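Hi F.,

I've been meaning to write this up properly since the lab meeting, where we talked about keeping a consistent format for the predictions we share between groups. The idea is simple: the sequence comes first, exactly as it goes in, then the structure tokens exactly as they come out, then a line or two of notes. No screenshots and no reformatting. I'm using this chain as the first example so we have something concrete to point to.
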Amino acid sequence: MSKIANRLILLGIGLNMVQWIAIFILFQKILAQFDGYTILNPNVTNGTMTSFSFIDWLQSMIYSGVPFNYIVFAAIVACLLYLIPTAVFIILEIIAYFVIRKNPQSAWCMFILAMGYKNIVFDLSGVPFLMAGLMMYKRK
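Output, unedited:
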């Protein structure tokens, strides 16, 4: 594997991790706005209700019947659906990096190319992966 491809893969992993951490921090800030898993609920005396766990909080949002809670629930689920696969892909990208360093002809080169295509659809962290993947593909 060339030094350029090596650096591009590391840059892609770094960008992907920075993006994941930024989304996670944003997710935490959104959760902090609700002060201990508090939701709007017009069926109680003071208009809000507090849950003691994350799962109870999500269930309370669904059963509250308040449209705002449905929007917040959808946003939280969308964040989770984005964060979980991204964390898995970051781990796979790191594994691919080390496998490719040992064997530059490994099939994991195609994984890096695939991550480039996947990530370029969502963000700019796919550009280094795409370039490194195309360089390795050209070498084969």
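Notes:
DSSP finds five helices and two strands in the chain.
Helices lie at 3-32, 54-64, 67-102, 108-122, 126-139.

If this format works for you, I'll send the rest the same way.

G.
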